[in-house]
Amino acid sequence: MDEVVISRAIVESYMKDFMAAMEVDVAIAGAGPAGLVTAYYLAKDGIRAVVFEKQLCVGGGMPGGGMMLNRIVLQEQGKQILDEFDVSVREYQKGYYVADSLEAVSAICWKAIKAGTRIFNLISVEDVMVREDDRITGLVLNWSAVSWSKLHVDPLTIRCKVVVDATGHDAEVCRIVVQKIGKKLRTKTGDVIGQKAMWAEKGEKEILENTREVHPGLVVAGMTANAVFGSPRMGAIFGGMLLSGKKAAQIAKELLR
Ligand SMILES: Cc1cc2nc3c(=O)[nH]c(=O)nc-3n(C[C@H](O)[C@H](O)[C@H](O)COP(=O)(O)OP(=O)(O)OC[C@H]3O[C@@H](n4cnc5c(N)ncnc54)[C@H](O)[C@@H]3O)c2cc1C
What we know:
Layout: H1 3-20, E1 23-29, H2 33-44, E2 49-53, E3 71-74, H3 76-84, E4 89-93, E5 96-100, H4 101-115, E6 118-121, E7 123-130, E8 136-143, H5 144-148, E9 156-165, H6 172-181, H7 200-210, E10 213-215, E11 218-220, H8 223-229, H9 239-256
Parallel strand pairs: 1-2, 1-9, 2-6, 9-11
Antiparallel strand pairs: 3-5, 4-5, 7-8, 8-9, 10-11
Helix pairs in contact: 2-4, 2-9, 3-9, 7-8, 7-9
The protein binds flavin-adenine dinucleotide.
Flavin-adenine dinucleotide binds next to helix 2, strand 2, strand 7 and helix 8.
């Protein structure tokens, strides 16, 4: 085996995919459950979707289950989504289902990639690109290692028609929009309101209402949706994250039309 051939194979193959990711229909920030599900439902319909994840591994908060016990709980509608990903789900008691969080993350990630999406880990979204009417037209990216090591290195940019902020409770893309464009999100304050205290039932219900376009060209999904609109957190029940990802894909498709 030739080490240089191995190195060439990695660089060429990666750069081919990265070049293809520079002009896409939908760019998703965050490979947690919501971002991955969004990517799957877009790619399944032939839409060019890419995901940028700042950490080494995908899955966001899902692998950790509840307090590091790697199980997740779902309600009936959430279970139906995991059925589509062939994840084993067990009924715990009427209306409550439990699944292995690692199996769920692996299955969702595998299906999203097989459907045609590309996931780039260790890349952070650090800014957005805007044009007339403050419409968001792309993402500004850098290696996560650059910010972690506080290096002074300029980023690169990709163009897209729709951005999905699935960065979890930090709502990082929305916060960038507020800081750099002004308080123009479609919330009561125009700002990221911030998530409220734990109330699983309310949080799960509101996450679907909150999954929408919050700024021209920017859709929110998963925990970001509740953080932006000031809805409650819900802890280790994950049905809402999956359903929100599916709805975000639907909204992105409508915006592309
Ligand atoms: C640190 C952390 C905090 C949590 N806090 C809460 C909480 O307050 N309330 C609650 O109900 N549940 C919380 N959870 C639990 C549970 O994990 C979430 O409800 C669920 O995972 C949310 O799914 P999601 O896909 O919306 O976001 P997450 O699972 O959080 O996934 C978001 C992903 O986006 C990535 N990301 C973030 N910023 C960027 C960026 N700039 N560029 C690229 N990628 C980025 C993250 O690395 C992560 O992988 C938390 C989990 C974690 C890991």
